[in-house]
Amino acid sequence: MKTSELLNIVLVIILIVVLIRYNVNDANGEINEASIVNSTAVMDSLHVKKSVGKRPFLFPMPVGIIGSYDSAGTPNIMAASWIGIVNSKPTSIGVSLRPATKTYDNVMRNQAFTVNIANEKLIEYVDWVGHYSGRDINKFDVLPLTPVKSKLVNAPYVHEFPVVLECRVVRTTNLGKHTHFVGEIMDVKVDTAILKADEIFVDINKLRPVMTGHGSGYFGIGDNLGRGGKVYQRLGITPEVESK
Ligand SMILES: Cc1cc2nc3c(=O)[nH]c(=O)nc-3n(C[C@H](O)[C@H](O)[C@H](O)COP(=O)(O)O)c2cc1C
Q: Which domain covers residue 161, as residue numbers?
């Protein structure tokens, strides 16, 4: 066989492979654009996916400090990242705690807890109270933090933390390793220094909240990326349907 014939065969094979890959419509010769988009995305090396198994990945993760009392009325705090707002009416937050923690016992007993939101200056305390257990040490005895008894729920909040949510437990679900407590938020207290002019909303740039990323440590906030309800308009995609 001549070299030119061999080259022709190779070219034909390549053409067939390309046609199969791009899913050419045999009937009218049109190319299926959706499959080209998908194929392009798959080929885009930035988006080549690797399975990393079942992991609690959610980025970023908040970190709150859970305040509670034990049976003797001793205040305790622990760090918790497995938290999040779960309902708007009644306004509620979910917190997942392991029974190994003293906080779990306290919250079970009193059916109440606080969530204290840290700023960047408090990050060492966040990490500290997430490291030691109130079963072994009274954290407020050794840390320069001040427990304040909530007037609304049977739990302490931390004076030095800029945002505080006072919660009463309305639902408890054993999920396995963690037990999920849903707390109705009875009130939120915010340092006046970080409130916006409307005196309700928090100025995030003044708060300087912290977050965690699994295995990546703690992070502060980055740039403001735009106003909710405006940012989507940058896409310029406006279907004839009502936005909800
Ligand atoms: C950033 C961070 C987040 C944490 N998140 C959780 C959590 O969501 N649930 C949990 O059970 N433990 C969590 N922990 C571990 C507890 O804070 C830790 O076990 C603590 O010592 C428990 O304190 P306590 O026994 O005084 O309640 C976290 C720790 C850190 C540092």
A: 61-219
